[in-house]
Design brief:
Elements (H helix, E strand, L loop, with lengths): L1 H39 L3 H10 L1 H7 L1 H62 L6 H10 L2 H10 L2 H10 L2 H10 L2 H21 L1
Helix pairs in contact: 6-8, 7-9
Length: about 200
């Protein structure tokens, strides 16, 4: 019991010492300095400028400004990262699209090479494939692929194929060709059809 009273007195005396030796003199000194500054006519703005000119003190006072600047920098960098992520996503989509286009081109090349081998096989096999088979192949192709193939054929072969195709299919194929080439083929097709009618 006596020990706890002694401990309480010690704690109280420690707080009293802190109050009377540290806190009260600090308050008195601050008040006294403000009173002297006011009496001396020291301007608060000039005092701040003087404080700002002291290197370490100025840095200590400017920590909030630096914090705000850092926050703005972080936000700007996050926005930049977000934009870069969006750009990366767009580029990935473009890559996927280009891959699919490349696969389509590979298929087209395979079909073209098969079709180029077909006439050679026909010549070797004594004309096993008929013109009807060739026309049915063009009917099965997409308009774009057929247009690409016909664009590379000699004009008389292209005209023969177009004349044997259904008129809707032929029109769709001509739409996929460059305008000048389609116009030339259409003109030649018209003349060819007129010759066929004249021959009959």
């Amino acid at each position: 019991m006596a020990g706890s009273k002694l401990q309480q007195e010690e704690t109280v005396s420690r707080w009293q010492w802190m109050l009377f030796v540290v806190v009260v003199p600090s308050l008195f000194a601050a008040f006294f300095l403000l009173l002297i500054a006011k009496a001396a006519g020291i301007d608060a703005v000039k005092a701040k400028q003087w404080v700002d000119s002291v290197p370490f003190v100025a840095e200590w006072f400017d920590w909030k400004k630096k914090e705000k600047t850092l926050a703005n920098t972080i936000e700007t960098q996050q926005q930049t990262i977000k934009r870069q992520n969006q750009t990366i996503a767009k580029q990935k989509k473009q890559i996927e699209q280009l891959k699919s286009e490349l696969a389509a081109k590979d298929e087209e090349i395979a079909r073209l090479s098969t079709q180029q081998q077909l006439p050679t096989q026909q010549e070797k096999g004594g004309g096993q494939a008929s013109a009807v088979d060739v026309i049915s192949m063009y009917d099965a192709m997409s308009d774009k692929q057929a247009a690409a193939i016909l664009a590379k054929l000699p004009e008389d072969e292209a005209l023969e194929v177009l004349s044997r195709l259904d008129s809707d299919k032929a029109a769709a194929i001509l739409e996929q060709m460059p305008a000048e080439q389609a116009a030339n083929l259409l003109s030649s097709l018209h003349k060819w059809a007129a010759r066929e009618e004249g021959a009959e």
